[in-house]
Amino acid sequence: MGDADILIIGSGMGGATLAAGLAPTGLRVLILERGERLEDSAEARDPVAIFGRGHFRPAETWLAPDGTRFNPGNYACVGGNSKFYGAVMMRYRAADFGPLRHMGGTTPGWPFDYDTLAPWYDRAEALYQVRGDTGTDPTEPPHGAPYAFPPVPHEPAIADLARRLTAAGLHPSPLPLAVDLDRWLARAATPWDAFPDTTGGKLDAETAALTLALQHPNVRLQTGVRVDRLEVEGGRVTGVLTDKGRFTAPRIVLAAGAVHTAALLLRSADEVHPRGLANRSDQVGRNFMNHNASAVLALSPRRNRSVYQKTLQVNDWYLTGGPKGEPLGNVQLLGRVSAPILAAQTGLPGPLARLIADRAIDFYAMSEDLPDPDSRVTLKGGEIVLDWRRSNWDAHLGLVATLKGALKRAGFPVVLARAFDRSTPSHQCGTARLGSDPATSVADPFGRTHDHPNLWICDASLLPTSAAVNPSLTIAALALRQADRIAEEAA
């Protein structure tokens, strides 16, 4: 019988959504999570504790290629990184699924088009109760139905910003957000971006998907379990070895995140699979992508009294804007960067940080990082080595410069920018990409590994391209599609 019919390793966006999709089938689902549930605390809404003292930041370190250690900022807890996410649930644009020419090269495209995934995008938006508006963003792809909830309302300073950007010739639109605003603000008047969700105000992987899944008696969650390696015999995974013993199931799903899923496959190497499991293509760990991203602060004499701020985006340069019409990327608001956050992130003295923060509106500029086989996850003595090789950086510099010009036209005389570095996990993906060709991909278009018929992957590892949008909704849509496929096979 085994411990379950399906064993899922990881409870983040992929694993939790997959469990929610499988729960109504009656199949026995066991989720193994190395972390624990986040408990509510005073620190959960304290910007000094979060950004200054790193209260929630895990102690885990990885290695850079030169051997130096760094803290990657990836969270091990029920719900994974989604507990701290900005709750942005954007669809890839339709053009993102095909080969697309960028300043830094041409993307390989996906093995299917946008229309193939669209029905599961609809379902994922419903599951995560996304608030949005399909009619104002010129790049928004077709939806099967309108959003079930209206957009999260702009605060006065952001409504004024939208008017200014429109007058400057742009097309600002509401961010699609998985946030219950009243519930979030009832706990404390803070932003949600990078703040942990301990009371359910964000519709994250735990709150929206895992809670629903666990209402079914056939779904179980076991926390505090570290998975060390997988056993394989005759091409099939026969066991999952952990610090809590051995677990078995007819189907195993890796949903540990783009880095840890790749590391687990590599760590499971044996005599038959000396390069690691699911790695006939030698693509496991390769094509690591992490969005090119910068914080952009637009300053003016006007006071910004916003609390949460993160409700607006601009996609005018998403599909064009480069010197030959190449895409530049997405612009969206950051959660409100208060003086304590700015001081903690920059080292500025408190009075200066307060002067800037009080008069700034904070933007997040995001450009696509292209897949590169030499940008990769490897192991050294069992430890994770991350060799992230940025690509398409000129496009990002172009996006930041173009945004600065537009903001000055919109009435912000001073605009500052600062790029995020490798210690900020800006949507890591791509290390076990899906595809139709076993020679160039790790998993098939549904997420089943080409090499092992009972081993699946369900997280950001699968993404063949990073696009220039937040990946959470796409991961969720892929998970629901995978759930339907597994249920069909098990019927």
UniProtKB/TrEMBL annotation:
This protein's UniProt keywords: FAD, Flavoprotein, Oxidoreductase
Pfam families assigned: DAO, GMC_oxred_C
Domain Glucose-methanol-choline oxidoreductase C-terminal stretches: 423-479
Cofactor(s) this protein requires: FAD
Domain FAD dependent oxidoreductase: 5-265
InterPro entries: FAD-dep_OxRdtase, FAD/NAD-bd_sf, GMC_OxRtase_C, P2Ox-like
Entry annotated with the keyword rRNA-binding: no
GO molecular function, one term: oxidoreductase activity, acting on CH-OH group of donors
PANTHER family linked: PYRANOSE 2-OXIDASE (PTHR42784:SF1)
Family of this protein: Belongs to the GMC oxidoreductase family.
Protein name from the UniProt record: GMC family oxidoreductase
